[in-house]
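lol ok so funny story. i was supposed to be doing the assay writeup but got distracted and ended up predicting the structure for this chain instead. priorities right. anyway since i did it might as well share w the group, maybe its usefull for someone
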Amino acid sequence: MQAQRQQPGFESPILRQTLERQTLERPNARTANPYTVRMIAFIILLLVVWAVLAILGFVIKGLFWLAIIGILLFIITGIIGFIRRNVRGNRS
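and the output, tada:
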């Protein structure tokens, strides 16, 4: 007969019973409460919505500042063009 090899940590029957009881009491994905699963899905959905809104906020804010810079440059170019046109008109 071959000698049975014991797994490390299972030398004590009390320890074995405790580990078996903890394994049986531990919930897994199949036995999880449906309310808990829905709540986790809702939290993930809120995180995704938050991330999308944050990215859109950065894009819109960036476009807003680009629009302001474009308007300012348009006005400055118009003013410079008007001044140069008047200067050239006075020379002739």
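Residues 13-91 form one domain. Residues 9 and 15 are 8 Å apart (CA to CA).
back to the writeup now i swear
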